[in-house]
Amino acid sequence: MNFKEKKEQIKEWVKDNKGVIILGLGTVAGVVITTIFVGKKIDEAKEADKIMALEEEFDPGRELDMQFVDPTTGEVLGTIGVMESYMNDMMDCQ
User: Residue 77 CB: number of other CB atoms within 10 A?
Assistant: First the structure.
């Protein structure tokens, strides 16, 4: 049996089993697509859990009064209420 005969046999087999081949490829594609969507949903759920855990651990600290003072005269220009975490963030920015 040479190459041309084998090639013709394969072509005939594909023609005879076209429906089975298409059904098999469709099933494989469906499984791949489903796996991708399920994997993304699991990743999104894990990210949401991480964010929730971080939010639960966050402690804003004490309530403080922040004053704005003129450095040359020492005059208090204004006072606002802030949380300790905001004050720490502002001090880190300097």
Answer: 9
pLDDT string in tens for the chain (94-residue length): 687 888 888 889 888 888 888 998 899 998 888 888 887 777 777 787 777 776 666 667 788 888 889 999 989 999 988 888 888 888 888 7
- Rounded to 10 deg, the angle between the 3-16 and 18-57 helix axes is 70
Joined together, the tokens standing for residue 81 give: 């209420």
Q: Per residue, what are the HEC states of the chain?
A: CCHHHHHHHHHHHHHHCHHHHHHHHHHHHHHHHHHHHHHHHHHHHHHHHHHHHHHHHCCCCCEEEEEEECCCCCCEEEEEEEEHHHHHHHHHHC
Please tell me the distance from the alpha carbon of residue 90 to that of residue 85, in angstroms, as a whole number.
9
Is 32 exposed, middle or buried (CB count within 10 Å of its CB: 0-12, 13-18, 19+)? exposed
